[in-house]
Amino acid sequence: MKKLTLLLALFFAFQLSNGQQNVLIIQPGPGLNDGTDNGTPDAGKDTWVNRFAPGDNYGDSYASASSPRSNCNTSDYKSYFRFDVFSLPDEVDSVFFGVTHLPHTTYCYANCDADFYFYHLTEPWDEMALIQSNLPSEDPTPFYGPINITFPNDFGNREYNITDAYNYWKSPEGNNFGFVTYSPTVGCNNAAVTFSVYSSDEAEETFRPYLKIYYGGPTGVNDAAERDAVTVYPNPFKDQLIFDAAEFDRYYLTDLYGKVVDVTYDEGLGGFHTDQLSTGLYILHLEKGSETHTVKVIKGE
Questions:
Q1: Which of 31, 60, 218, 229 has its CA 20 to 30 A from that of 78?
Q2: Coil, strand or helix: which one is 57?
Q3: By CB neighbour count within 10 A (0-12 exposed, 13-18 middle, 19+ buried), where does 107 fall?
C-alpha cells in the first residue's frame, strides 16, 4: 500500500485580453491503492488492462496504456481514468485533461498510425480489481477524438479539451464513472503506437494526470447559499474571507473532506484571517437554527 499523497491543487488568476479568467488545477496523487481511491484530489483513480495478460491488475502502475485493437494476437489494452468533480466549480469556461505521454521512438512494426478516442464509462469500477473479465461497460460513442498518433512520437505534456464531458458529469442527469481511452483501429499490433501516459502513481508529481479548469466571474461556482443571497467575498480569496456572521449562529471552514480548518474570526474585520491556508478549494459552513448554508470558496495564491 502506498503512502497517501496530499492534494496537489494549484490556483492561478490572470488577465486575458477579453477579461478576467481564473484557473484551477487538480492533480491527484496515488492515494491508498486499496480499492477506495475514487479520483479525489489526494486519491487518484487510473489503471489499464492488457488482453494479453487478462488476469493482471495494474492499479498501482506508474503508467496507463491503451492501444489499437489487434486482430493477430491479444496484445491490446485500454486505459481507465476518473476524477471526482463533485466539489469542483459548477460553471466553467473550459476544462482540459492534462497528461504527460511516454515517448515511443525505438521501433514500430505494425499499427503505426491510429486514431484514439475517449469514451464515457457507464458503470463503476475498482482500479485495484480491474482485469479483462470484469471491465465496466462503456458508451459506444466517443466524447473526444480522434487523437491521431503515429510513430515515432515524443509528445511530452498535452492537454485535451473535455469541457462537454465535465459539464455532463456535473449535470443532474450525468453519471461520473470516469472514462476509457483506446483506439478502435483494427490491425496487427506489433510494437504498435499507443496512448501511454504517466498515472497518478508516478513518483514525479508533475507527470501525473490533472484537470485544468478555466472559469470566469467572481467565483465560478453555484450553490444554495449564493441562490439565497448570502454574501461571501472575495472569492477567490487570499488573506481574508468576509461574510456577515451576525446572520448565523455558527460558522466554520472545512476542506473538501469535511475536516475543520484552523482559522480565526475577526469581528473588526468581519471575517476569517486565511493567510496561513494552502491554495485550493474549501467549504464555508453557515448555520442558523436548523438551516445550514454552504459556500464553495477558493484560496488563491
A1: 31
A2: coil
A3: exposed
Q: Quick check: 23 and 298 in contact, CB under 8 A?
A: no
The distance from CA 228 to its chain's CA centroid, rounded to whole angstroms, is: 29
Distance CA 230, CA 224 (A): 9
pLDDT digits (tens, 9 = 90+) for 59-91: 999 999 999 999 999 999 999 999 999 888 888
User: What is the C-alpha to C-alpha distance for residues 196 and 48, in angstroms, rounded to an integer?
Assistant: 10
Could you identify the residue written with the cell 480548518?
261
Helix, strand, coil percent values for the chain (each to nearest 5): 5, 40, 50
Report the C-alpha gap between 301 and 299 in whole angstroms.
7
CB 117 within 8 A of CB 145: yes
Nearest CA among 125, 128, 116, 118 for reference residue 177: 125
C-alpha cell belonging to residue 104: 515511443
Against a cut of 0.90, is the pTM above it? Answer: no
DSSP collapsed to 3 states, 59-87: CCCCEEEECCEECCCCCCEEEEEECCCCC
Rounded CA-CA distance 22/15 in Å is 9
Query: What distance in Å separates the CA atoms of residue 134 and residue 145, rounded to the nearest whole number?
Result: 25
Burial 212-236 (b: 16+ CB within 10 A, else e): bbbbeeebbbebebbeeebebebbb
Please report, for residues 194, 233, 283, the alpha-carbon distance to residue 265 in angstroms, rounded to integers and kept in the order given.
Answer: 53, 14, 15
Q: What does the radius of gyration of the chain's CA atoms come to, in whole angstroms?
A: 21
